[in-house]
Amino acid sequence: MIVAVTGGHGFIGRATCARLTELGHVAVPLGLEEGFDIRQPFELAADACIHLAGVLGTHELFDAVHEAVDVNVKGTVNVLDACVRAKARYVGITMPQVFPSVYTATKVAATRLASAYHHTYGLPVSHVRAFNAFGPGQAHGPGHPQKIVPTFAVEAWAGRPLPVWGDGTQTVDLIHTSDLARMLVDALDHGDDVTFDGGTGVAFTVTEVALLVGKFTGSSSRIEYLPMRRGETPTHIVATGEGWDRLGWTPDFRYSDLIDTVASYARHPMAAAA
Asked: What is the pLDDT of residues 133-186, one digit of tens each?
């Protein structure tokens, strides 16, 4: 099967393309590297599309609302239209509704648009609700949202304080990018507007993650508690297993994955002070 992957050169996109190739599919990444602009209508030459392209961020997107809507909402409409014309399957990535943020609003809109296309045009649609993806190669630094594992890892290796926004009791559900990619690819076999929980069902508090990273790195860095940023509120989220009964496997949290990921950031340029 030929599968286009929008955002195929991104963190999750690379893992998804690798999984497709491993299974014998032809993965076609669509991104800026190919001159692909999701904001423009396009024709899809594929049997399916896994739609991962988007602008990310929580507090950052309050300064880029129009761009977020253009890419995450209008761009999704272009992908859905292309899938309808090509009679191709569609798998979209969404998120738990945790924050009253611009990003959450755009992802909710995109997901509901996909459901609307399924019910109106018969488009085969599946959704993967991604929780807190992590793994080596996740971007960190200026121009990128501050994701929990790379942020803690880089700061710990550099011997700087580990920033926690809020009191640290809010929870995260960490899923390795390989498991999330596997779920995105498996979702192609469905299409009845089903949603799969892209998490492991294991909840860690943010403070617990910071302490684990500190332990793995041997760092004596202290935790610095900061005010929550725009669009963020304290949340206690964990995957409940929606859709897992269809998969034949269950995503797992593995400490070895977290250790390997944290170790990979020892060489990050921003950890040079270590």
From this structure: 999 999 999 888 889 999 999 999 999 999 999 999 999 999 999 999 999 999
Report all structural domains of the chain as residue ranges with CATH numbers, in order of start.
Answer: 2-269 (3.40.50.720)
Output the pLDDT for position 83.
98
Reported as a single tens digit per residue, the pLDDT across 74-110 is 999 999 999 999 999 999 999 998 878 899 999 999 9
User: Token pair of 23, please?
Assistant: 């299974």
* SS3 state of residue 54: coil
Residues 92/193, Cβ–Cβ less than 8 Å: no
Nearest to 51 by CA among 25, 24, 78, 26: 78
Query: CA 40, 62, 154 angle in degrees (round to 5)?
Result: 95
Cα–Cα distances (Å) from 12 to 92, 100, 211, 229, in that order, read: 12, 24, 26, 25
